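Risk register update: the risk of archive-format incompatibility is retired. Evidence:
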Amino acid sequence: MTPTPLGIVLRHDKTGFAFITREHLKTWEFVHYQTDCQHILCRVAETEPLTEYPVEFLLDTGITPSDVAEFCGFDPDEFKYFMTKGVVIGYFDENLGEFINPRMNPAAGTVIHRSAAGQLREINKAQPGEIGSATIGTIAGTDFKVVLSVKDVVSQHLSVIAATGAGKSYTVGVIVEELLTSRNMAPVLIFDPHGEYTVLDAIANDPRFWDGDYKPKVRIIKPDKIKIRVGDLETSDLISIIDDGTMSDKMKTLFGGACRTLRRDRSKHFTRSELRNAVEKERGDGNDSSIEGILWRLRKLDNKIFHDHEDVPIVDYLQIGQLTVMDVSGISTGFQQMIAQVILQKIFDARQKTENGTYTSATPDKYLPYPVFVILEEAHRFAPQGSGSGAGGDGGGGGGRVAKSKPIIKTILSEGRKFGVGICMVSQRPSKLDSDSLSQCMTQVTMRIINPADQEQIGRSIESVSRDIVSELPALAKGHAIVSGVGINTPTIVRIRQRYGRDRGASKDAPSIWVRGSRTGHAERGSDAILPDHEMDIGV
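Archived output:
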């Protein structure tokens, strides 16, 4: 079927081409033109009227300008055309699997067509319903499905960036739903600082995710169930926990000596009692006061997070077809970073040593024979810009002036592809997120961003994000995103699809809650009344 002509090219320059059309096209709509052997995909950049009405035609709001034009002998049709600017994306090369820019703009007189499903199909690296596909929404203004290549997203990392209220957590939920379908069966771990992803436990009992014998599993790890084995912590980690900023260099040296003594036997994990005994053995030469100071500070290890023997069961958390939500809400930022550091280090170690054969099925608690995917919500807490501890301070991490989780995150982002560890960085403040870490995320889902500093960070850090993408960010509607990078063949504005489950991150309808509370007497009792699920906004 021959597509209906949309317009004709008038001219071109180094920035793109202009064509004349009667259609008032939106920016980022897709159009194309045909050469002898291929169709060349293009994107609408801007639109303006070809001919403007004289000002005099616009002075009387009671009469339409077209009526005035006709009365004065003008042809009303000449005011119905638009000058539309387009930019060339290119033709799709099947062998290379990407769009190739022809390095030239269409000549004057070239016919431009609106792109239909046949031409848009090449935008996706994966097709709906096939193994390794994640259908996250539709091209804005159309019903054409946008599908991410899960292989590329997981192996080369993902960022989801948006201002508060733009639909960031909702979008992450959509991506998780896609990863847990039978098309992917991914092992997914979420670090959840606010406890907002615990609602994803509904996935396990939703028949839409079932396929034959496959049924996804969801584990919610509550804060009181999170344990860090003391023997897994580095000396610097232990110092950052116990040091409140008053620990002297002499005390740190003595403590380091005690730790080195304990670590001589690498096969053994020391306990808190053994650590105290090792510190006691450092007494001598008038250093009793320093030893007492260390022992007094070691009481901080009696925090319920730390344990002598209980360990993070990485293999149990990362099973095929399982989502594990690590709810760290209520835990201080410093300890959240430490938990992330320990777990990410264990994951990286397990994948690296499984790949090189050090870990085998004979070591079932460390053997991880498949790629995994980790989502870091509030990523700027775990990998902040500069050397700071991130939003909220160290909050109980003692002298935790440096985000302990940042080095291992950067290691995974740079080396994880070789060992099958993928990371998704999620943040509403990219200007506070480490720019090197953000630049390593090769697929980007970027939603509305208004803050100029955040826009600048995105433009500076993400290679595939061009100036026209950054300029579009403040105008994106809620639930819309610009998807770019290796997971898709060309940047596209996507309307994120409806989630299957409800969304705890949705804004509460405060007036309705107040009124309901007043009518039921909850307001007088101070109840945390909330609307029933069916009355809450679960959309984007």
